[in-house]
Specification:
Helices cover 25% and strands 28% of the residues. The chain is globular, with a radius of gyration of 15 Å. It has helices at residues 17-28, 38-48, 98-112, 124-127; strands at 8-11, 51-58, 63-71, 73-74, 81-89, 117-121, 138-139, 148-152, 160-163.
């Protein structure tokens, strides 16, 4: 399904940082599960060199969405795994398919780069459409387990506790 608003998705470029910050801040401002730090998280990942893939969606006039992927470590030592998040869309454009288009493009780009898989913390109802599912052999302490999901892209499913980049705190 294509977004209702025509968008072009491209890698983040120098000069996009301030817009991505404002967009992420606005996107998470009214989210009940947000800690209000997502916009700073993206900056910390970028500063630490841990922002492995950063994509923006643009309409005819501006950046309207952003998605970030960072490397994760897994207890069994598996390599090539990434964490998805945050994904942000201007609030007035929620529900128009922009976030979904970013997720699909990000997964496709990671697959093309030889990634083994992606994990995320998010709504099982939303992310199931992209193939994400609860994988009990991958664990992440804290939130209810059904919200921690994985998508195997290549190879065997690893096992162990997943640790995100230090910027996640």
């Amino acid at each position: 399904m294509s977004p209702a608003v025509p968008v072009t998705i491209r890698p983040e470029a120098p000069g996009d940082e301030a817009t991505i910050f404002a967009l992420t801040e606005a996107a998470f401002a009214e989210m009940p599960f947000s800690d209000g730090d997502e916009q700073h998280l993206v900056n910390r990942l970028r500063a630490a060199g841990d922002l492995a893939l950063s994509l923006v969606a643009e309409d005819a006039t501006r950046i309207v969405g952003h998605i970030a992927f960072s490397r994760v470590t897994i207890g069994d030592g598996a390599q090539g795994w990434f964490g998805l998040g945050p994904v942000s869309v201007w609030p007035e454009l929620h529900g128009q398919g922009i976030g979904g288009a970013l997720v699909k493009r990000g997964i496709a780009d990671l697959r093309q780069q030889g990634a083994k898989g992606v994990v995320l913390l998010g709504s099982p109802e939303y992310y199931a459409r992209f193939g994400f599912a609860r994988e009990p052999q991958l664990t992440f302490p804290g939130p209810p387990p059904e919200y921690f999901q994985a998508l195997l892209l290549n190879g065997e499913l690893p096992a162990g506790m997943v640790t995100y980049a230090p910027a996640f705190g």
